[in-house]
Amino acid sequence: MQQTSTQDTLVGLFVASGIAGLFFLALQVSNLSSFIEHDSYTVIARFENSGGLKVKSSVSAAGVKIGQVKAIYFDPKTYESVVEMNIDAQFNELPDDSTASIFTSGLLGEQYVSLVAGGSDEYLQDGSTIDITQSAIILEKVLGQYLFKSAEEKK
Amino acid sequence: MIQSIQHLGKITRGSFTKLGRGTIFLLHTLPGLINLLPRPRLLLNQLYSIGVLSFLIITISGLFVGMVLGLQGYNILSDFGAEETLGVMVAASLVRELGPVVSALLFAGRAGSALTAEIGLMKATEQLAGMEMMAVDPIKRIVSPRFLAGLLSMPLLAALFSMVGIIGGQIVGVGLLGVDDGAYWSQMQAKLDFQDDIVNGVIKSIVFGFVATWIALFEGYDCIPTSEGVSRATTRTVVNSAFSILGLDFILTALMFGDN
Asked: I need a labelling partner for A120 at 20 to 30 A (CA). Which of A79, B137, B217, B232 fits?
């Protein structure tokens, strides 16, 4: 009897530590804790070119993360890229004339959407559209323009 | 010429027959799981000998694998001035690949071979035949509890392996090499996704646990009941488990992470 109860204790400890390991991975290692806490609302922005932006790329204002990209798709009528963003519900006082730009973090880093607040009294709501946008900067395009321009100047 | 074709045919037929016997064996094992409900003690004993006794080798290996990853990763990442992403590298490689795969290989070596040898010896000493004489189904009594215990232990062991490995990487990276502690954890949390990384890693370990336990039990049950037969079956368990785990890992990785 003594032996079986020691065995029970050890099995219990093993299962508990395994489950603790799973919880550790879920909460400490992954981003699970960051998106179950808050509600969010969806805002749409149309870009001429969304570059290398991906679903789950971050949306930030003044350098602070306030949400993430929910979906990106092509609009066949206007030939624009439509980016749906989930913005954390606690940041519900963004003016509706805010501008959205796609920037790159660092020289080779990931692309993200940066929101710059405007001056309007109306706020962005669920489903509203950001009108003023600035497309991603495509490095090859800029380089090509630069090379073309320097060739022109030589003539 | 004809002889070599005959030989090829014999090998093919033999391996297909074996696969079929293995499947039938599995189909007999699964209904036996219901019989465990009134007898949880059978499962508990097996959880002890399969799970608890593998605990030490899994955690110690995990610690060292994590420490090596931290050391090697730091050397390469510091060339690019990206030491801060060490946490991402260690955690992603552990959670996605090394955790499930290495712990499954260790599990096949530590627990799988023991299962084969145990059941093979029971068969060689005619204990299984004796049980049948007493109208006790050896599959329900011996095989099913071991199968369920292996299936339950594997994901827990893989999670432990990853957790200890990430802590090992932190000990080396943050403690010895001077990576910032906050960056180690926050970059990891920003880059690893719960659904894509953690859940897929757990699914992998469940699949590996299923396959490794199934192979071990079947080889034991199917072995030639002599001392040589048992030793061959034990060898086959380790070899076949390792092949299946690594092959399945490639397929699962292609399915889970292949499309982005």
From this structure: A79
Residues 6 or more apart in contact with residue B213 via CB below 8 angstroms: B111, B112, B115, B146, B147, B150, B151, B154
Measured in residues, chain A has a length of: 155
Q: Hey, are the CB atoms on B189 and A28 less than 8 Å from each other?
A: yes
What ranges in chain B are assigned the alpha helix state H?
A: 2-32, 40-46, 53-77, 86-93, 99-107, 113-124, 127-133, 138, 144-170, 181-191, 200-222, 227-257
Burial of A31 per CB tally in 10 Å (0-12, 13-18, 19+): buried
At CA B133, angle to CA B219 and CA B31, rounded to 5? 55
- Please, what sign has the CA dihedral across residues B235, B240, B245, B247? positive
The rounded mean pLDDT for chain B is 90
Contact yes or no for B41/B153 (Cβ under 8 A): no
Would the CB atoms of B156 and A21 count as touching at under 8 Å? yes
Q: Distance from CA of residue A62 to its chain's centroid?
A: 14
pLDDT-derived band at A36 (thresholds 50, 70, 90) equals: low
Three-class SS state of B224: coil
Contact call for B55 and A14, based on CB within 8 A? yes
For B80-90, the pLDDT digits (tens) are: 878 888 888 99
Strands A64-75 and A80-88: antiparallel
In angstroms, the separation between the Cα of residue B145 and the nearest Cα of chain A is 15
Write the pLDDT tens digit of every residue in A102-133.
Answer: 888 766 667 888 888 888 888 888 888 888 88
pTM of the model: 0.76
Write out B135-186 in H/E/C secondary structure: CCCHHHHHHHHHHHHHHHHHHHHHHHHHHHHHHHHHHHHHHHCCCCHHHHHH
Interface residue A9 vs chain B (CB under 8 A): no
Find the Cα–Cα–Cα–Cα dihedral B195, B201, B203, B208, rounded to 10°.
170
State the complex-level ipTM. 0.75
Q: What span, in angstroms and rounded, lies between the C-alpha atoms of B90 and B68?
A: 10
